[in-house]
Amino acid sequence: MKFKISKFNEPKHKSIVSCISWNNTEEVFSCGDDHILLKWNLVTNESLTVTTLPDNFFPTSLQPYPKTGFGSSSNKQSQDNLLLTTADGRFHFVNQNGRIEKSVAAHQGACLVGQWSPDGSSILTAGEDGTLRIWSRSGLARSLIGNVGVPIYCAIWGPSGSSLLHTQSNCIVITHLQGNTKRLQWKGHDGLILSAAWNPTNNIIVSGSEDGFFKTWDMFGQLLSCSMKHDCPILSVSWSPAGDLFAVAGYNLLRLCDFTGWSHCLERPNTGSIQHIAWSSDGTQLAAACSNGHVLFAHLIQRQMSWKNYSCTLTGRKTITITEVTNSTTEQLDYSNRVIQMGLASGHLIVVTTKQCHIHSSTSWNTPVVFDLKDSIVYMILISERCFCLVERSGINIYSYLGRLLASPRWGSMRLDVLARSSISLGPDTLAVIDQNDHKTIHIFELPTGIAVRSSSEHSTMTVTHTMAASEIVLSQSGLLAERQLAMIDFNKDLYILTVKDSKLKLKKIAVQVSGITWCEDVAILVALREGRLIIFGSPRTSAFLSLTTIVRDVSDLGKNPKLIRAEEGCVVIRRGDGSLLHIAISPFPMQLARKVAANQWSQALKLCRIIKDDTLWACLAALSWESKELAVAEEAFAIIKQPHQVEYIQQLKNPTQIESNQD
Questions:
Q1: What gap in Å lies between CA 24 and CA 418, rounded to an integer?
Q2: pLDDT less than 50: residues of the chain
Q3: What is the domain extent for residue 636?
Q4: Is residue 138 part of a domain?
């Protein structure tokens, strides 16, 4: 991935551009020391002067009212206002026509930070006087959070709005607004911390300092990654909405990194110090405020994904190139509008532009099914064998590959703007979502009706509640609905599994200290990553034989915080801590056995086990045949793995009268 940078030949601002903010995916507001508020249109490549502010206005930050879809809509006037802070210690409400609706004296000295809360109900300000304050939406004082005695250059809301993060010289401080939780403080850098960002989808914090380093942290202050030393201070950092990328800016510096801290590209625009950067809500564009009067726009290109022997690359704003790696043939797909999301899996390429969704099939890339979008903001695409899902700002929508809307699942208070990819999973006939307001609750919906899955015994709405918050869920992709399984990792890194249609509806613990999970695409085999080891569960549903059907393989040199990407036949793909992809060869025989069992080819499955002569493979066959009530196959398999009690039980089931006569 990399940035494609564009800017006007001549700067539109006459002085330093100090702050910038997106109004929507095609409009940007900028303001600087020349007292001019500009609106930029990225479709027409034009800039419009909204208003000229008073001469004593030297702006320090600019933010529009949050358009998240879950905030209160009672105050329409607030939703049209920009929150502007200035160096005279005030914050101002400025409507989008440039009129100053209200000004509030907030701090002694400059007001350096002004931020709406995630739901738009409160305002957070911080200033040179070292105070941190919260105000109502209308500008009335609510509370003084604290006075640290030194200027606060950065303050942000926590993901849920119940906590605050601010910098204090070279330290990072997290303050909780509810309960008696003690505030958390740690030394982040050797120099003054100038910027920080806290992403709601992954809870990772990134900070930038005068010492030339940027670092990533978890919400408890543990260091996750540290950059190389730059020759300039890090002035601004910003997360993309999806939480998979963040950008870093400094003097003639713009860098793109993924969530592990691995750098994807480095740009050196001749713009002087980049004072502030901001991502668009669709996560495809970046705007930067520069000290030489320029406003710089960067579009994310060279995004790449692969499936089997196909590779898909976004080569331009409106162009995608598909390559078949086996014969090196390529096809170019052109679109009339800018591409904002794409997904490749299960023989289909789903491309979302600003206005339409295009459904391409691997059998014919150039004849897509096209339909218009309900919302121009699409957060992510999920693809399964029979359907795909668009997570939009307005809701979750499930579509068939013919473009027909199948379902629009809903639950309680939906927070789709902070929904992480690890918190939602799509199967061929099921959708599972972790509730963002209560991470202990998992909602499961049956498709295509979109209604909640019902237990076969109680016929009640199904929500799975765990004692610990869930961090990752994955649905199996093969088999019938009755065989659909949900794997879940909680915050203790314990791995649980649940059969969706099981009448008991009980999560079963099968492993501990697991950092990542994935299902094989076409068979019910679960692969987990644990402390430098790969764990392959050949038959995770049959807990009685779990230890016999599990394969453990040691893997070295994964680095810090590796991520399990996918499992294919004979190969598992892991992203190491340094960002590189590692392909690990594994035995393909458990997957081949599972396919033969799924096709009811029991004689072929027996033949495979007899040829390979592996106890784990025989154990998998024993578990699968026992579950499918193939007693003859199960009897032979249990005998091979030396389970005499199971063999005796099967013989009794096959011929109970003979067993009774022998006992007499």
A1: 18
A2: 69-74, 454-460
A3: 608-663
A4: yes
CB 561 within 8 A of CB 516: no
Choosing from 301, 317, 346, the residue where a domain stops is 301
> Residue 449 has what pLDDT?
56
CA distance 183 to 174: 6
CA distance linking residue 30 with residue 177, whole number of Å: 32
Strand partners for 62: 84
Q: What is the pLDDT of residue 451?
A: 61
DSSP characters over 70-105: SS--S-HHHHTEEEEEETTSEEEEEETTS-EEEEEE
Indicate the residue among 271, 301, 331 that finishes a domain: 301
DSSP per position, 13-64: SSS-EEEEEEEETTEEEEEETT-EEEEEETTTTEEEEEEE--TT--EEEEEE
For residue 196, which phi and psi values (nearest 5 degrees)?
-155, 155
Q: Is 373 part of any domain? A: no
Beta strands in 137-290 (DSSP E): 141-147, 155-157, 163-168, 171-176, 184-187, 193-198, 205-209, 214-217, 223-226, 236-239, 245-250, 253-258, 263-267, 274-279, 285-290
For residue 448, say if its preceding peptide bond is cis, omega within 30 degrees of 0: yes
Instruction: Say if 577 falls within a structural domain.
Output: no
Average pLDDT, the chain: 89
| Structure token digits, residue 662 | 């022998």
Alpha-carbon distance of 90 to 600, in angstroms, equals 73
List the CATH number of the domain containing 140: 2.130.10.10
What b-and-e string marks burial along 14-29, b requiring 16 or more CB atoms within 10 Å of the CB?
eebbbbbbbbebbbbb
> Among residues 568, 489, 499, which one has the least CA distance to residue 530?
489
Chain centroid to Cα 262, Å, comes to: 17
Cα separation of 355 and 43, whole Å? Answer: 13
| Best CA proximity match to 445, nearest among 458, 465, 461, 459 | 461
Torsions phi, psi for 175 (to 5 deg): -115, 130
**Phi, psi of 646, deg, nearest 5:** -70, -40
Please say whether the dihedral angle defined by the alpha carbons of residues 90, 91, 93 and 99, taken in this order, is positive or negative: positive
User: Could you please report the per-residue DSSP string of 363-408?
Assistant: TEEEEEEEEE-S-S-EEEEEE-SSEEEEEETTEEEEEETTS-EEE-
Residue among 169, 236, 233, 165 at smallest CA distance from 204: 165
Helix axes 615-627, 631-640, angle to 10 degrees: 150
CB 393 within 8 A of CB 380: no
Our count of domains for the chain comes to 2
For residue 663, the surrounding DSSP H or E stretch is helix 656-663
Residue at token pair 């076409």: 522
Residues 253-268 pLDDT 10s: 999 998 888 899 999 9
Q: What is the pTM of this model?
A: 0.88
Upper half-sphere CA count for residue 623 (Cβ side, 13 Å): 24
pLDDT of residue 479: 83
Q: Give domain status of residue 389, yes or no.
A: no
Report the length, in residues, of the chain.
Answer: 664
Distances (CA, A) of 255 to 1, 150, 210, 552: 11, 29, 16, 39
Read off the tokens for 655.
Answer: 């011929």
How many angstroms separate the CA atoms of 596 and 620, rounded? Answer: 12
d(CA 110, CA 85): 8
Q: Alpha carbon 473 to chain centroid distance?
A: 12
Position 534 scores a pLDDT of 92
Alpha helices in 494-630 (DSSP H): 589-598, 602-612, 615-627
pLDDT at 195: 96
